[in-house]
Amino acid sequence: MSKLNEKHFNLETKLLNFHIKSTQEFKRGSNHIFLCEMSNLKENFYAIYKPKKGEKPLRDFKYGTLYKREIASYKISKFLNWPKLPPIVIRDGMYGEGSFQFYIHHDPSNNYFDLYKKYKKELELVALFDLIILNTDRKAGSILMDEDKQIWSIDQALTFNPYTRIRTVMFEYNNKLIKDKQIKEIKILIDNLESESILFNSLKELLDKDEILYLLKRCKEIVNAKFFPDLDPYYNVPYPLI
Question: Is the pTM of this model over 0.90?
């Protein structure tokens, strides 16, 4: 196990086992989201809790699946080792089952638009990852920079639905050549999914069969194209932008 995966495993264990000391609603987006203080008496940290019951019904996504899509995104990012997604687990909270994600301390005044020039390489991995998971809601505010100047990607709930379109603010990567290293890593992901590996079986518990099949199809299209697509800033754009 790599040092990064070991660190993530330790945080996942804490997210699963620490006591929920306090909960307060976190005003972000249309769904009910809560900031929880997690404790084991010796150590405290914060987590973002997104309960299934707090999800707002959407036309394009089956009700009660958004928190599972966040977990599926995280599992793929762990397999690829990019981009950085905060550790996340499924567990019960005061409003029932949902996702608990490690809270990244950050300056909310920073977002994609402010960070792009300095962190182009890190953000390119986020843009490529969004193609893989078919992210329909990449807002500028879902890119965070932590206290150590590390870039993190959050809010991967509106993903994997093969009947939707990508929506993003990251148009700077349009038509850009995808690096050989990432192409090779996506090929490994394809082989892993086609062999019905542990990753494949874990995704089966989170996504519908057609969503996994289309995930494979998208990965193969990315490998064959070798370039980022030419997305339309009027059609492939989220609302609001931040």
Answer: yes
